[in-house]
Design a protein that fits this description.
Elements lengths: L6 H6 L10 E3 L9 E5 L6 E8 L4 E4 L5 E4 L16 E7 L12 E6 L8 E10 L13 E9 L17 E6 L8 E5 L2 E3 L6 E2 L27 H6 L7 H6 L17 E8 L2 E6 L2 E7 L10 E8 L13 E11 L4 E9 L10 E9 L2 E10 L3 E8 L5 E9 L2 E10 L4 E8 L12 H9 L19 H9 L8
Parallel strand pairs: 19-25
Antiparallel strand pairs: 1-18, 2-7, 3-6, 4-5, 6-18, 7-17, 8-14, 8-18, 9-10, 9-17, 10-11, 11-12, 12-13, 14-15, 15-16, 19-22, 20-21, 20-23, 23-24
Length: about 475
Amino acid sequence: MKALSLLAFGAALGITSVAWADFFEDFDTDTSANWIVLTSDGQTDHEANFSLDYFNDRSGFDIFGNPITIPGFKIPSAPNSTGGTTKGLLLRTNLVNNASASIVSGLSTSAIGQVFTGNFVMTADVWLNYLGPGPVGGSGTTQLAAMGWGTEGTVAQTNANSLSGRDSVFLATTLDGGSAVDWRIYAKDSRFTVANGYYYGAGNSSTNVVSGVYASGDTGANLNSAHSYWSTAYPSIALPADQALNYPSQTGTTNPGSVGFKWRVWKVTKTGDTLTFHIDDVLIGTVDLTFCTVSANPNLLVAMMDSNGNAAVDSTGLNFMLVDNLRVTMTAPDQHVTGTLSLGDTVGTFGFARNISYDVMQGTTVLASGSVVANSPNTSFDVDVPAAATGAATIVWNGSSFLRRHTAVSLTGSNQAVGNVMMQNGDVDESGEVDAADIDQVIADFGSTSDINSDTDANGEVDAADIDIVIANFGGTDDV
């Protein structure tokens, strides 16, 4: 665990005052003594290797204890490594190859003696690997990789442990994108349910429901890798040919919407009471921490877990998570841009919430992003922007049947109010213009009581009023 110059890293985040990492680990040497590894079941069912060479061959032992050479995975150096090093933290789970086993297994690891309160940015180079051929090998895997924050570091943080055992908030995603639900966020005493994206209170009772957690939307189908949000962000890629040199099964291509077989930058950002998760700068989810409870001494975590208790089928050791260049940088208190989002032509109380996303832009640089969940025509917003970001900026608003709108702001490092942001309705097909195609779509959906864009007034039903709204706004276009 090292402090490191991060001038370039901070500048990339728009945090020009950052000059060093509060926590950094490149795993180039065995630092296992600095980490605690916690498991949901027997220790022999897991592996945590804190300085694994993920490219070259390495020494090992067979099941009889005889020394052997294990072929390397031929994974290239992580993008944020210095000097082309190829060592990192490897996590594996559900290693018991026993047909009678029924183990829902998992492990998590946290840095000993570390506490991260206040605002921070945590990033890591992460590689997810699984037994090929792509897209899901022979029968697929139900294993997930995870990263998050908030735990005391005394109980394994997995999907499998009891709800009361969790004291963190973490993102988990399947290795191969082959599950019904590939994108998940878990929390203490509760979960942001993978069924519909909602927060459920203690014991999974249907209380304290908050929508808008997942960037892809709040229904179960939206959390499958096949959904357009994920498949567009993470197109299918070929399994690396170099890995097939030592492991003939490693051929084919990945599922669109999954993040395996490529180094990805995972990012967890805490700003006030908001925790966001990104992978390669794609927003995964936004968590309101006022609905969660974390440890009084919150630490980071990375984890591997299996969502069912079937016996392991991977005798080659190809199902794993690699972590390299893990760093946490504390950030200054943010400045807040506040105001009211006014959704035109909507009813007083919505049948379905409307999610309006935002990006705070300086040129092509994204300073902050998130979403406003509106349940009424006028909904207040509080946009957090790094305090170090100053100068002219634009907040870009977009979502549902509303045209994209720009709000110009001059960032000074201090809080400011910008008043009402008026959102023009009618762009049902999200083409950027209210036109005949939008009228046709509303007519095609007439009578529907589903949560769809054609319900422009958000009353819970597509009816004649929605057609009238599109006609009234005909010709409107996105701000550019």
